[in-house]
Amino acid sequence: MELKSIIKLYNGSSFPTLVTNEIGEEYVMKMKGAGNGIISLVSEFIANRIAHNLNWNVPNVYWIKIEENYPWLFGTDEFDDILTKSYGWNLAIQKISYLKSISPTFKEMRELDLLNQLITLDYFFINIDRSNLSNNFLLSKMNKVYIIDHGSLALFYNISMNDRRLFKNHIYYNELESILEFLDERILDIELFKAIFDEIPDEILLEINFNKEILTKIIEDRISFIKSLY
Question: What contacts 176, CB < 8 A, 6 or more positions away?
Fold first, then answer.
């Protein structure tokens, strides 16, 4: 899809922006020129798409293209600089009509039947950014809790972490006695990932100096480690 218009800017270091595509559909766009850069977008694409394909409460994601010399019609000089650095493919996230950000307890997440989804996502991908300061949960107007923001995943940042626990700053770090109790084993299927890797534009992979074989090896190694815990 292609960027047509920019509607408004949300708060956040990644400059999340409400946009429309060429047929008028609305998405939240994250740009590769902001935040942690393009590897953050690839991380979020893989994690969110896996979760969506497993029917979890996570927004779906797509790739959206900003054409070169896209006219500056919005925002500040800083925003325009980021937009210019982001020509090409960027991340488009399913728009959620949300009511508010929330901070559910461990018990509440369990009662909502969302704990398996959350723990599996954050443990498999080694989410280092679901802390008390940024727990990243949204309550939609339909009273549905969404798990969001998967751009800071240590699995894709060459951080070796073969641990049996969540990352130490995780909001539920002290609540879990066993990761395996809540792990959804469906995520341990490499074929799920290979199908998603095929959806990543080649120029995106070139920009981060990755290829599908490297991504496959990262995921295969993670799957192998987790299986060794059983």
Answer: 119, 165, 166, 182
